[in-house]
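To illustrate the input format used throughout this study, we show a single complete record. The first block contains the structure-token representation of the backbone; no residue identities are included at this stage. The design step must infer an amino acid for every position from geometry alone.
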């Protein structure tokens, strides 16, 4: 099973929900509130980034918006370059 979880690089203050997908990959996702705290921005900022197509890639899970931690780490690495 491949592990896409970036738990060690995300930080201890954020709870990570990891699940195995149908393809055997682990998916670690965070809620908007957790990701906003992690990035040090307001939740409204995340929603604005999502609307404008900026910020980390988000996915919808029913009515909820989720962020994969692998995408957050990737976006942060690109931002710091």
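Output of the design step:
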């Amino acid at each position: 099973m491949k592990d896409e979880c970036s738990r060690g690089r995300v930080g201890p203050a954020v709870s990570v929900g990891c699940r195995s997908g149908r393809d055997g990959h682990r998916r670690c996702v965070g809620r908007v509130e957790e990701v906003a705290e992690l990035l040090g921005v307001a939740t409204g900022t995340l929603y604005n980034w999502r609307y404008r197509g900026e910020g980390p890639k988000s996915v919808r899970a029913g009515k909820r918006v989720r962020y994969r931690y692998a995408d957050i780490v990737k976006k942060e690495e690109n931002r710091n370059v």
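Structural context for interpreting the output: The helical segments are 7-10, 32-39, 43-52, 69-79. The longest strand covers residues 26-31.
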